[in-house]
User: Which sequence fits this backbone?
């Protein structure tokens, strides 16, 4: 059964009943008034209304002083939710209550919510000097692993991606983060973060990375027209190898959204021939960095599928650039070391791109020397099987293990580190990232038997 309101009950009160009810209610009211007078004898009981207290509009706080609650991330506030203007709050003296304008008495001015701000960071102690190892031997490829060319020991790249640009925590992150001092200079994406004018910044980064125990740093944009001797020498002293990009953002790029052969042959108005420009720029980078023993690899291209709206139609241009750089290295072999070429891909689970870029289509020159995966799928501390035990076969890396178990070339996690959950949405990232996948990199029958390195993304984060 459902409860019904009184008006729905199946009877209609007669006139006599209504009169009786009125008399009862009036009697109750008189009794209540008498009781109140008895309980509060000192109270002045005046039936006449008190004059309404007038509040000057000048005393009303400005709307600008009232902080509106923040809108949820990725959601713009509706116009209806915006605080009213001060002009809307103060009623016109010529308007009456009957016209629909609220009286001043009914206006409630909300108190601004307390603003929680992270306390300023304490002064940071100077970083300890990292141990100078006195140089780095060139790394070479043998089969599907990396080796020190002098000692013959297997080399595992423990790396950190270094791309300190356009990091705007206050825009992209929730919560409250107070930046330290001095504030990080925000770079344009086309700028070279290893330039001499930024030495205080990258020198501190190199010390920090070396103190972690890392041995590799990955870069993303290089200007071949400036010298990198200082940066590479300091990195070498700290035992740090460098992965250098061959393509650039503003000039000397491979257009991912342009299908082959246009992505290597087209003339772009105001820019020139894309193939000529990217090859010219790449050759300058190869010439500049091949002379340093701690240049680990050249990235011939990165995540082409992310910007490729034509399917995977631009990958023949990646092979074309790979071929031409290999031939340039062969032509200059008397005076220039052949540094391996690496392609770094978003981990899509597909083997098509892997097989295409590593195969020798026309000849051995058009195949990359190593393959990199940018992986962000391993996010849980454990992956439990049906018996409730942590089981590698239930993790996202099991698919990678199966795919590359018999791969004939080095495979590297060119980026890794789960960036989901509270790390992406909460600042200042209490606890940070836990890196639960690192344990799988060095175990037999997991990734230890196939992986040649892993680079965390990214130092600025």
Assistant:
């Amino acid at each position: 059964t459902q409860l019904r309101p009184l008006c729905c009950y199946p009877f209609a009160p007669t006139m006599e009943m209504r009169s009786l009810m009125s008399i009862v209610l009036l009697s109750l009211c008189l009794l209540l008034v008498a009781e109140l007078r008895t309980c509060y004898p000192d109270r002045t009981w005046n039936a006449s209304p008190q004059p309404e207290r007038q509040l000057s509009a000048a005393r009303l706080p400005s709307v600008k002083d009232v902080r509106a609650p923040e809108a949820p991330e990725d959601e713009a506030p509706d116009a209806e939710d915006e605080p009213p203007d001060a002009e809307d709050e103060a009623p016109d003296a010529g308007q009456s209550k009957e016209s629909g304008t609220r009286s001043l008495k009914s206006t409630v001015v909300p108190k601004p919510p307390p603003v929680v701000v992270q306390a300023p960071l304490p002064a940071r102690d100077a970083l300890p000097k990292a141990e100078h190892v006195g140089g780095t031997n060139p790394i070479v490829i043998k089969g599907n692993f990396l080796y020190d060319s002098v000692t013959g020991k297997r080399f595992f790249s423990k790396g950190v991606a270094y791309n300190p640009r356009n990091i705007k925590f206050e825009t992209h992150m929730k919560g409250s983060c107070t930046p330290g001092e001095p504030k990080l200079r925000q770079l344009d994406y086309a700028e070279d973060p290893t330039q001499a004018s930024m030495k205080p910044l990258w020198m501190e980064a190199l010390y920090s990375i070396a103190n972690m125990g890392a041995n590799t740093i990955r870069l993303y944009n290089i200007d071949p027209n400036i010298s990198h001797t200082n940066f590479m020498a300091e990195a070498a002293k700290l035992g740090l190898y460098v992965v250098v990009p061959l393509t650039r953002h503003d000039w000397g790029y491979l257009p991912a959204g342009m299908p082959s052969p246009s992505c290597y042959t087209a003339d772009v108005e105001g820019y020139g021939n894309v193939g000529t420009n990217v090859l010219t720029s790449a050759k300058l980078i190869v010439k500049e960095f091949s002379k340093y023993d701690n240049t680990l690899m050249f990235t011939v291209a990165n995540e082409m599928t992310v910007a490729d709206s034509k399917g995977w139609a631009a990958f023949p241009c990646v092979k074309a650039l790979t071929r031409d750089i290999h031939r340039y290295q062969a032509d200059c072999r008397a005076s220039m070391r052949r540094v391996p070429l690496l392609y770094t891909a978003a981990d899509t689970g597909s083997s098509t791109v892997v097989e295409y870029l590593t195969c020798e289509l026309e000849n051995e020159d058009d195949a990359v020397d190593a393959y990199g995966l940018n992986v962000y799928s391993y996010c849980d501390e454990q992956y439990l099987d049906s018996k409730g035990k942590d089981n590698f076969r239930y993790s996202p890396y099991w698919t990678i293990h199966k795919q590359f178990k018999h791969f004939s070339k080095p495979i590297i996690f060119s980026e890794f580190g789960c960036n989901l959950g509270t790390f992406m949405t909460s600042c200042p990232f209490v606890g940070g990232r836990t890196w639960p996948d690192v344990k799988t990199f060095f175990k037999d029958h997991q990734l230890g038997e196939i992986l040649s390195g892993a680079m965390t993304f990214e130092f600025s984060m």
The chain is about 25% helix and 15% strand.
